[in-house]
């Protein structure tokens, strides 16, 4: 595969340029808007970070071991980075991405880092570039722009800092001012690392999120293994649909004891349908015989979303839906490297009809909070804002994944506020595996929201006093309210007994 390391545009030969983050970055050039944006941002920039949904591995904070060298920390695990490099012709093998069959890939971290730096220009103007520059400057105190001529010196700077106690995961958690961080965990996960965190003397709040998707995919080749694991950790002999539901209820109860306040569900389409009990049992029996089809799975998943909503009205767990991604679109990449390798592509998504069964059953119930996300921005004005502007249960999740960007955040506010207001949104979440990028992601959101509100102030839609209240709500209050993270939340209760795991 082509490697365009000799491409024009990288800025080579100019020497080391300073890495400077402008104080007014992302603010409007209009002086009136910029002044108001600065004032609003100053009131929110130091608020604690609440991270109610993400994919940081709890093992990281349970073990609290030093991070590895810079390549293993910043490049190899992050599909935001290597997907764009791959799209430009840089092979995944040359970036050290492990293969499924164990065939050789580049092992020299310095060569990988150099290749990354040679192509760093590809990230100009992207949210990934924004986050990386902020990480380099504010987390690792790098003072020069990353590029071909500075790559090895910057590698050494970061490597040296990673050996320091103040750069261990728990120390950074405290330095980042994270109030609570939620992970995302399978229904069958014994939550061993969460138990270890609870049993430690560290006071950081790390909570699980219940993600049962693998247990609903009855046509998937790994489904039987997931059901066996679910039965083992729940103590329920799962032999039919009713026992399957009991096992899920048992696991939800344990997750709540461990501090969980939410569930999470990913699907291509957010289709919901209540099946007759006999039909649900029939589909489950077909799955146990390895006879379930893709159509069977679609109907089963639709029914299980109804079951999850029912359970949430009973146990209080907030329900999150993340639809609209066609996973592993690139067959060749999937075959060689496996899942989560930057080949998930958004599809058009319909909410109004698909969610009607669930919302008619539970959308008026004050006990349910349903947070809806989308990768289809065309639905903001047409479907999502009107749904949130009517059903008490519905809240709108922030711009996600491909739209977790300056322009994506701006479009979200412009297309939803007039219909739903900001108090039907759920606050920001970073939804990241890249632990060191968390402060940069929250800072970007706070700047964009401050600038949006400043525009309303400058046009006399709202006054500055109202904007101050709204800015704080968008940065901090709404996420605590939506995800029920108050002082009496399970996230702050005493440790659960390890005997339940």
Brief rundown of the structure:
With 501 residues, the protein is of the alpha/beta class.
Q: What's the CATH class label of the largest domain?
A: Alpha Beta
Strand order of the largest sheet: 6-7-10-11
Rg, rounded, reads 23 Å
Low-confidence stretches: 1-13, 491-501
What is the 3D shape? globular
* Sheet/helix structural class: alpha/beta
Mean of all residue-level pLDDT scores: 94
Count of separate structural domains:
2
**CATH architectural category of the largest domain:** Alpha-Beta Barrel
Strand proportion, as a percent range, falls in 5-15%
User: What is the CATH fold-level name of the largest domain?
Assistant: TIM Barrel
Largest sheet: 4 strands, parallel
The percent range for helix content is 40-55%
The CATH homologous superfamily of the largest domain is called Metal-dependent hydrolases
Task: Please tally the β strands and state the result.
Answer: 11
- Give the end-to-end Cα distance, rounded to a whole number of Å: 47 Å
The helix tally amounts to 20
């Amino acid at each position: 595969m082509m490697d365009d390391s000799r491409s024009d545009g990288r800025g080579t030969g100019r020497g080391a340029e300073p890495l400077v983050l402008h104080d007014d970055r992302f603010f409007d050039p209009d002086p009136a808007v910029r002044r108001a944006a600065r004032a609003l941002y100053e009131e929110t920039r130091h608020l604690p970070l609440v991270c109610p949904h993400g994919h940081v591995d709890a093992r990281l904070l349970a073990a609290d071991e030093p991070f590895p060298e810079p390549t293993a920390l910043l490049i190899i695990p992050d599909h935001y980075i290597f997907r764009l490099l791959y799209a430009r012709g840089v092979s995944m093998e040359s970036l050290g991405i492990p293969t499924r069959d164990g065939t050789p890939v580049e092992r020299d971290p310095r060569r990988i880092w150099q290749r990354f730096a040679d192509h760093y220009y590809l990230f100009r103007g992207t949210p990934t570039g924004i986050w990386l520059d902020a990480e380099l400057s504010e987390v690792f105190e790098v003072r020069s722009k990353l590029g071909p001529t500075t790559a090895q010196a910057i590698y050494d700077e970061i490597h040296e800092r990673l050996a320091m106690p103040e750069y261990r995961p728990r120390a950074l958690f405290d330095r980042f001012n994270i109030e609570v961080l939620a992970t995302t965990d399978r229904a069958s996960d014994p939550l061993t690392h969460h138990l270890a965190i609870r049993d430690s003397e560290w006071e950081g709040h790390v909570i699980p999120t219940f993600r049962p998707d693998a247990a609903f995919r009855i046509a998937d080749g790994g489904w039987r293994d997931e059901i066996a694991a679910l039965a083992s950790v729940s103590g329920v002999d799962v032999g039919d649909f009713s026992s399957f539901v009991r096992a899920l209820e048992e696991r939800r109860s344990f997750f709540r004891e461990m501090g969980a306040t939410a569930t999470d569900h990913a699907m291509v389409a957010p289709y919901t349908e209540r099946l007759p009990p006999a039909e649900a049992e029939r589909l489950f029996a077909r799955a146990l015989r390895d006879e379930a089809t893709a159509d069977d799975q679609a109907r089963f998943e639709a029914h299980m979303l109804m079951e999850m909503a029912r359970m949430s009205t009973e146990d209080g767990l907030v329900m999150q839906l993340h639809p609209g991604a066609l996973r592993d679109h690139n067959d060749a990449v999937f075959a060689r490297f496996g899942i989560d390798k930057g080949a998930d592509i958004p599809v058009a998504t319909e909410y109004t009809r698909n969610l009607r069964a669930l919302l008619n059953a539970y959308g008026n119930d004050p006990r349910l909070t349903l947070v809806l996300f989308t990768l289809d921005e065309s639905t903001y004005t047409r479907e999502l804002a009107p749904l949130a502007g009517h059903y008490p249960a519905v809240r709108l999740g922030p711009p996600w994944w491909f739209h977790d960007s300056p322009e994506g955040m701006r479009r979200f506010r412009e297309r939803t506020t007039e219909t739903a207001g900001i108090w039907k949104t759920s606050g920001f979440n970073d939804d990241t595996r890249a632990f060191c990028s968390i402060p940069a992601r929250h800072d970007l959101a706070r700047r964009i929201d401050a600038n949006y509100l400043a525009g309303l102030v400058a046009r006399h839609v709202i006054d500055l006093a109202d904007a101050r209240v709204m800015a704080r709500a968008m940065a901090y209050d709404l996420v605590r309210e939506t995800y029920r993270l108050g002082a009496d939340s399970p996230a702050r209760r005493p440790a659960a007994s390890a005997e339940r795991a």
